[in-house]
Amino acid sequence: MHRQKGFTLIELLVVIAIIAILAALLFPVFAQARAKARQATCMSNAKQIGTACRMYAQDYDEWNVPERLLNPDGSYVSFRANLQPYTRNKQLFICPSAPELNTFATIPYTTYDHGRGLPNNRHLTSGYAMNRVHWDPGAPDPPTGDKYGVADALAVAPSECIFITDSISGTGYLYDGWYSLFYQPNTVGYVRGATYNPQMYGPLDTGGLRHNGGASYIFMDGHAHWYRPEQLVCTPEKCWWALENHH
Fold first, then answer.
1. If we measure between CA atoms, which residue out of 160, 166, 202, 211 comes closest to residue 184?
2. In degrees, to the nearest 5, what angle opens at C-alpha 41 toward C-alphas 37 and 42?
3. 226, CA 20 to 30 Å: which among 6, 125, 158, 212?
4. Are strands 68-70 and 76-78 parallel, antiparallel or unpaired?
């Protein structure tokens, strides 16, 4: 009689335990790698959008694309639609970390744009929006005019003036996006996602934390960079959210 060789129950349990430990160690690494890949794709989108913004400005005598333009019929056309002759790619406006914000790319914007036939005059969604921080009379001005463009000459420091950034674009429903980052009143020391914002019923701007605790930012000179919210200075001496480069 020859004894058959095999694994004991204890040996199998040990092997299963080792596999479980390895999986627990590797899954966070894989998740981090996926997040980094999405961040890189978002940055690629941002760079292409920034290039399109500069091409627009060159064609319009150094006046930048506005947040929205008013049509004769009373409807509006967003900056995303006005940049299409330069990007020729609506998918650029879908952030890979917020794929649900996609109705600008998936619905014909030539038929449906802000205030044109949408339920309750809502907006098409997108993963990116324009800087509309400090929109109070007499306050430092954001670089993204509403119904009009802003001239390059008005920007004191174009490379330090935020133009477009990752955004939650409203709440993410089919028709509930925004052209701009939620309006932020004139607030010294503003930190995105931390400073109270009455339009958002609190500071819950998760777009600023979308990519590994930060977000992609496009600046008035066309370059793009990743920053954490606390890195974007807003003091009386310097404010990256304002044309004047100070609060």
1. 202
2. 115
3. 125
4. antiparallel
Dist. CA 5–CA 240, nearest whole Å: 71
CB 127 within 8 A of CB 98: yes
| pLDDT grade for 174, boundaries at 50, 70 and 90 | very low
3-state secondary structure the chain: CCCCCCCCHHHHHHHHHHHHHHHHHHHHHHHHHHHHHHHHHHHHHHHHHHHHHHHHHHHCCCECCCCEEECCCCCEEEHHHHCHHHHCCHHHHCCCCCCCCCHHHHCCCCCCCCCCCCHHHCCCCCCEEECCECCCCCCCCCCCCECCCCEHHHCCCHHHCEEEEECCCCCCCCCCCCCECCCECCCCCCCCCCCCCHHHCCCCCHHHHCECCEEEEEECCCCEEEECHHHCCECCCCECCCCCCCC
What's the pLDDT score for residue 162? 96
Dmax over CA atoms of the chain, in Å, equals 98
**Contact (CB, 8 A) for 108 and 84:** no
pTM, full prediction: 0.84
